[in-house]
Design brief:
Keywords: Membrane, Transmembrane, Transmembrane helix. With about 240 residues, the chain is of the alpha+beta class. It folds into 2 domains: about 150 residues, PH-domain like (Roll); about 80 residues, no CATH class. Helix content is about 35%, strand content about 20%. It has 7 helices and 10 strands. The strands form 2 sheets. Strands 1-5-4-3-2-9 form a 6-stranded antiparallel sheet. A 4-stranded mixed sheet has the order 8-7-6-10. Helix 1 crosses helix 5 and helix 3 packs antiparallel against helix 5. The two termini are about 35 Å apart.
Length: about 240
Amino acid sequence: MAFRQRIAEVVGLIRGSRTLKWVPIPPVRPDAPSAVTVIYEKSPPLWAKWAHVIVALDVMMVTSIIEYTWNISGASHPSKPVPQDQSQPAEQCVEAETVPQHLAEHLQLQPVWKKTIFSGMFVLSGAMFGAAILASRSRVLRALTFSRGGTGAKRPGTLYLQTASHTKGFGIALPVEKCSIISGQAPSRLLIKVTGMGVWQLDLNEATINGKKPAKGQIDRIGMLRTWNSIGGRVAPLVAKSN
């Protein structure tokens, strides 16, 4: 059940991420600093920064296993020298690319169906691992930017979510009244939840909140919640009581 639940979570993350469009984030204007405010900013973790490298290593590992399955496990003949012309130099003599004698004695020929199933399992697991890394990366926030609505606007403002997968200056635009903040698994973690779109993770450890960065090893959880309340975001009851 846990495995199936994890698969459903990964599929949900991928589907949710594909439906969210990238939009340019409005810059902070010196002449009107209150119009656009960066309320949260933090560098993403190393695994999110190197996600593409991790996926590339995953692909290399899977392809190596498949190559071993179809080439090495399917050969059981010792290496034999290739017949050569006596007129050619001895150093040009090559050997057939087969398994050496000391390895061939311990190998057994495997049927095609067994090698196909074995390879398919590794392809599936490798694809799931890579998809999970990229999907999780798109849910780690590196910045939250709030743009206030104009006078007489129907909505109080727009919240721009910039994740580890976004390039600089781009993010996801969401109405702030549809976003709520909930507690994470640790005191330094908060989650931005949007109904029907999933959650995004906030790491408050040494994060810059509303332009202020706390001391090393400190978190400004109360400051983040106060800033969130000031822009009109919703706060889960359990989060409000704990602070």
